[in-house]
Design a protein that fits this description.
By secondary structure, the chain is mainly alpha-helical. It has 2 domains: 3-93; 120-293, hpI Integrase, Chain A. 59% of the residues lie in helices and 3% in strands. It is built from 14 helices and 2 strands; from the N terminus they run H-H-H-H-H-H-H-H-E-E-H-H-H-H-H-H. It has helices spanning 3-17, 22-41, 52-64, 74-93, 120-128, 135-150, 154-158, 162-165, 188-200, 202-205, 224-238, 246-259, 264-271, 276-297; strands at residues 171-175, 181-185. Helix 5 packs antiparallel against helix 6, helix 5 crosses helix 11 (224-238) and helix 12 packs across helix 14 (276-297). The longest helix is centred in the last third of the chain and has 22 residues, at 276-297. It starts with a helix and ends with a helix. 33% of the residues are buried. Keywords: Cell cycle, Cell division, Chromosome partition, Cytoplasm, DNA integration, DNA recombination, DNA-binding.
Length: 301
């Protein structure tokens, strides 16, 4: 089904059968034209060719501002997705499309904003701020190294048990949302920190109460609140003034991978994102970095 033809048919349906106001229809038409233009540029004039992944790419492009267009705010991109979804839903209702490929595409959340991302130097300072002269210091070092090395959510790291890291050969199985498991590289620094913690620290902290990898001073599993405290205190010792949380390390992990040349799909897998649209937000950070470098270095910036 030709996208432009279906869009025109849906326009008539909104005006005649649904009786929407001129202003509402005008807003719909603007986003409809935006979507049809994007499809044509992507060689997807036939809506039967469009997949869920294409819709995700469309939202990501709206947020980035490709083709000379200004980047859209999350709320504007979400509205544009609603219109694209409406077109596909209308096509299914009319019997010209076999399935609604847009139904499962998640819009960017309104007011979407990344927390502060640490530079590689700042991450190193944070990790070096953990003392390795005490059982708690060794635990803190292993915790922070693991968070940054894997990009895992703090809840995922705190759910690890000792058997998860025993003989893992540098690959860690992390259980994420929906009980889905993914494999992530652990890295030599995190592996070394965990080994030191298991040999010199965990036996001191353990009271035989828990199989959790990371323990508190009483031998129980380390809580999310305690993990936040660990990071806040390390940031203070490192002299970092940014508002740092466990998620800051996750964001830094993703940003540093993309800046180092990793593709978005790989980072999506490592982070455990169900949709690449969620991961695409990190490309804005790297694009901003590129613009800053270009502006300061290019002779005709």
């Amino acid at each position: 089904m030709d996208a432009a033809a279906l869009a025109a048919k849906w326009h008539d349906h909104l005006v005649v059968e649904r009786g929407l106001s001129d202003n509402t229809v005008s807003n719909y038409d603007r986003d409809l034209n935006r979507y049809v233009t994007w499809l044509e540029a992507a060689g997807l004039a036939d809506l039967n060719q469009v997949t869920t992944q294409h819709l995700e790419a469309y939202v990501a492009d709206l947020r980035r501002g490709v083709g000379g267009a200004a980047p859209l705010a999350a709320s504007s991109a979400a509205r544009a997705l609603v219109v694209a979804r409406g077109l596909h839903k209308f096509g299914v209702a009319e019997g010209v499309l076999p399935a609604d490929v847009a139904a499962e595409v998640s819009p960017p959340s309104s007011g979407e904003k990344l927390p502060d991302t640490l530079s590689i130097t700042e991450v190193a300072a944070l990790l070096d701020a953990c003392s390795e002269d005490s059982p708690v210091g060794l635990r803190d070092k292993a915790l922070l190294e693991t968070l940054y090395a894997t990009g895992a959510r703090v809840s995922e790291v705190l759910a690890l048990v000792v058997d998860d890291v025993a003989g893992n050969e540098g690959i860690l199985a992390v259980t994420g949302k929906g009980n889905k498991q993914r494999l992530v590289p652990l890295g030599s620094h995190a592996h070394k920190a965990i080994d030191a913690y298991l040999v010199r620290s965990r036996p001191v902290l353990s009271r035989g109460k828990s199989h959790a990898l990371f323990l508190n001073a009483r031998g129980g599993a380390l809580s999310r609140q305690s993990a936040w405290t660990v990071i806040k205190q390390a940031a203070e010792r490192a002299g970092l003034e940014k508002d740092i949380s466990p998620h800051t390390l996750r964001h830094s992990f993703a940003t540093h991978l993309l800046e180092g040349g990793a593709d978005v799909r790989t980072v999506q897998e490592l982070l455990g994102h169900a949709s690449v649209t969620t991961t695409q937000i990190y490309t804005h950070v790297t694009a901003d970095s590129l613009r800053e470098v270009w502006a300061s270095a290019h002779p005709r910036a």
